[in-house]
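Loading example: each entry is read as two labelled lines plus one structure line.
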Amino acid sequence: MKRLLPLLGLLASAAALSAEGNAQASTPAPFPYFVGNCFNCHGTEGRVNSAIPAIAGRDKAYLEETLKAYKAGTKQATIMNQLAKGYTDEEIAVLADYFSRQK
Amino acid sequence: MSLINNDRRRLLQAFGASATLAGASLLPGSAFAAPKKGKKLGRVVVIGAGFGGATAAKYLRKWSDSAIEVALIERNKEFISCPTSNEVLAGHREFDTLVHSFDGLKKNWGIKVVHAAVTAVDPEKRTVKTDRGDSFTYDHLVISPGIDFNFGAVAGYDEAAQKKILHAWKAGPQTIALRKQLVDLPDGGTFIISIPKAPYRCPPGPYERASQVASYFKAHKPKSKILILDANDKIISKTKLFADNWANDYKGIIEYLPNWETVEINAETNMITSEIGDRERADVINLIPPQTAGKIAHDIGVVNANNRWATVDWVTLESTAVQKVHVLGDATLSAPLMPKSGHMANQHGKAAAAAIFEILSGREARPTLMANTCYSLVDDRRAIHVDSVHRWNPEKKQLLVVEGSGGVSKEPSVEEALFARAWAKNIWSDILS
């Protein structure tokens, strides 16, 4: 029985992999809910008219490079330089892409 | 490789998916999983329409594209914001600006808003009853009950004393009443703020209150004094910023005493007593009592930490004690370095909405990131902040502050006061419209 277990495990993981592959082929990526972190200050979907700037519909490259500069500390801010350090570069790219597509 | 393909690959990498398997599903417009129109996924009852509950209600509707039915039960007819209410005490803000309607949640999001008190919750049958005779069934219950006060921890803080010695730690009639006490205070009068041991709602709040009232005294009652009696061993939030603010701007007005835990109040003589028998007297006393999760959390049985707070799974915000009951905001046993703040409660609301939508869609809830920002106004035109980003740690099964993230202001600034007031306006809108 002990000898069989690794083999069963292998079969199970192979089955899981193929099921996962099928699911991915037909299912869209899950929604990146963490975009909602920005809504608190910048408005739902990044839409506001306030001292805190709107981020909806801004140029994607601008958003991404600005957040990365805040994260690197090469661009000064009161608060965004501290918050940007909480996100990976991949997450920053997702945020930039998401908000650039909001109208 | 076109730009679009690069973008798509980057998105996919962020979710750990393989670029070749994604197909065209990530093009703009159809980027993310959305339920089919008209599909019903289930029913959620939300109890408490503050920063946590109202946010959860809105985002359950928004992110499920109305596939989740939401009933929001709230005793009060209007939303009253605690954040920025300290400005009212100093006369820097009108009370009315704190008050907001729930109409947006009804009209914009189709949420059934019920103004009633919950009388019974049956987690087995998944039903909620109210004092108006309503009965609701739920697939998931979200409670965001805020805090209740433990008046019993302070001898003499009975119902009669509570009419005179105010906490003003829930914005509302007490905010207006404490403002009146400060206006009625003669020049040369004294004001005590008594702060309980942490954890309590809004860590920087009492210190902001001291600065706000000091700015009022400085302009209108320059001989008046503020005595801060803090049960904690130091200023527990924005420590150096507040200490510097008081030394630079309110020297001779604010006196700060740490390790001063109030155990008794005499409302007739306005005498306040510490656990080691120290006594102080003032013309106006603002006594903020120790706190616990709102009563409904105790009634449902989710309070399982020190008989005070509700422990939750930080991926779904589900109670560790009662299944299908999600607890938000100040009532939770906070994750490490996570403050009990309105901003954080909003983040809890979004995380719970996301998790419940995923679960009702037959998928697994995934860990999300949360962020906090707390502004404090130190006078009529300058503010400071503290902020942090919290990420799920799968080994420790806990939300932890991302190393190197977050921080505080360098110094009070006019720019940050503009941001603070914009923050309030924008988060109210994010919650309610």
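Chain A has a mean pLDDT of 82.
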